[in-house]
Design a protein that fits this description.
Elements lengths: L17 E5 L6 H13 L6 E3 L18 H4 L1 H7 L4 E4 L3 H9 L4 E4 L1 H4 L2 H11 L6 E4 L6 H13 L5 E5 L17 H9 L5 E3 L1 H5 L5 H10 L4 E5 L17 H10 L13 H37 L7 H17 L4 H26 L5
Parallel strand pairs: 1-2, 1-8, 2-3, 3-4, 4-5, 5-6, 6-7, 7-8
Helix pairs in contact: 1-3, 4-6, 6-7, 12-14, 13-14
The protein binds phosphoenolpyruvate (PEP) and manganese (II) ion.
Manganese (II) ion binds next to loops.
Keywords: Transferase
Pfam families: CM_2 (PF01817), DAHP_synth_1 (PF00793)
Enzyme class: isomerase
């Protein structure tokens, strides 16, 4: 597996959970200073200060960021808070300017992660430095694209890496600005051991209400920190005005969150061990049943081949879906879970029967 350095080993003195706060966009030196002052007054000093210097706006004509000049204002943050600074880079020129201005950490935004050319260009521009890079998930829920971007940085020798979950565009579900998909960061953490994922509730929720709830959820799912857009006068912010919170509100949110401890660091109790053993046993039983079920599926496949029947039989499929979903719901399993489970089993069954057909009649490959 690819070795990388976790946030605590970035040499910035950070200890988890990582809290990143600051405005969506750097606007004026006065704005940056006021945010810092209010953070101090409210005794809410984040692990890192964020500020968008170049803003990837969806539509042209909105505020596109103050540019390099804004990086000079980061000295104000260092003076007041003495914490690391992170900014978004969207192309090679941004990356070079960020390095020249001693930015501590850069992040790649969702609109950039989708584009391997842009990611590679940024990776090449940062290569040779030791700067930590955080990669936001792409706009669409594609784990490979997210992983691929992290891999491009790793491949040029940048090993201080983390990911940020900021939710995904969804054409239909408008409850969120960007719908969270909790299984994706968890999957990323499984396939890339030790990869930390910071959650960005601001861009998920898109408004002030609900940031606490999503932050708590992220902690419950074992994510490793939070990035929360913070502005002293959110209503007057030049970008993302609806979702930014004041430093005072940031303090309230962080105080209300129940930060869970990772269980790995503790000795599990006897009770937990018993329960886990019971689950292990049931998983073995589930696997035995699945093995048996697929053996029967193979026999059905052989029968279909003999009688020239097609593998997919839509009436039967419809019936299986409806009856099993109903039974599952009656057993207190969610409809969504039942449908996903059945799709998964059915897809595997079809694949096996098609493979049988190909093997029996290699010409039809
Ligand atoms: C941001 O962090 O301000 C931003 C533009 O985020 P995203 O890339 O998640 O849209
Ligand atoms: Mn923003």
């Amino acid at each position: 597996m690819k070795e990388h350095k976790q946030i605590k080993d970035w040499g910035l003195g950070l200890t988890g959970p990582t809290i990143i706060a600051g405005p969506c966009s750097a606007e004026t030196p006065e704005q940056i200073e006021q945010i810092c002052i209010e953070m101090k007054e409210n005794n809410v000093i984040p692990s890192m200060f964020r500020a968008g210097i170049w803003k990837p706006r969806t539509r042209p004509g909105s505020f596109e960021g103050i540019g390099e000049e804004g990086l000079k204002w980061m000295e104000i943050v260092r003076h007041h808070l003495n914490i690391p600074i992170t900014v978004e880079v969207g192309n090679a020129a941004h990356a070079e300017i960020a390095l020249r201005n001693n930015v501590d950490v850069v992040w790649v935004g969702a609109r950039t992660t989708v584009n391997p050319f842009a990611v590679q260009e940024i990776a090449d521009a940062l290569a040779g430095s030791d700067i930590p890079v955080m990669v936001k998930n792409p706009m669409n829920p594609d784990l490979d694209l997210w992983m691929g971007a992290l891999e491009r940085f790793h491949a040029v020798g940048l090993t201080k890496l983390a990911a940020i979950h900021r939710g995904f565009s969804d054409a239909y579900d408008k409850r969120f600005r960007n719908k969270p998909n909790w299984s994706m960061p968890m999957h990323l953490k499984r396939v890339w051991t030790g990869m930390e994922v910071i959650n960005d509730p601001s861009h998920i929720v898109g408004k002030r209400d609900g940031i606490l709830e999503i932050s708590q959820k992220a902690m419950n799912f074992g994510l490793d920190g939070l990035m929360i857009e913070t502005h002293h006068d959110p209503d007057k912010a030049w970008s993302d005005a609806k979702q930014q919170v004041t430093p005072a509100r940031l303090k309230e949110i962080l105080s209300a969150i129940d930060f869970k401890k990772p269980m790995e660091s503790e000795q599990p109790s006897e009770r937990l061990n018993d329960l886990r053993r019971a689950v292990d046993h049931m998983d073995d039983q589930l696997l035995d049943i699945l093995q048996e079920r697929f053996a029967v599926i193979d026999q059905i496949g052989a029968h279909k081949r003999e009688h020239h029947l097609s593998v997919f039989q839509s009436d039967r499929w419809k019936d299986v879906m409806e009856s099993r979903t109903q039974k599952g719901v009656a057993k207190n399993l969610s409809e969504k879970f039942m449908k996903e489970l059945l799709y998964c089993i059915h897809e595997e069954s079809v694949k096996r029967q098609e493979k049988q057909l190909r093997e029996a009649d290699p010409v039809k490959k």
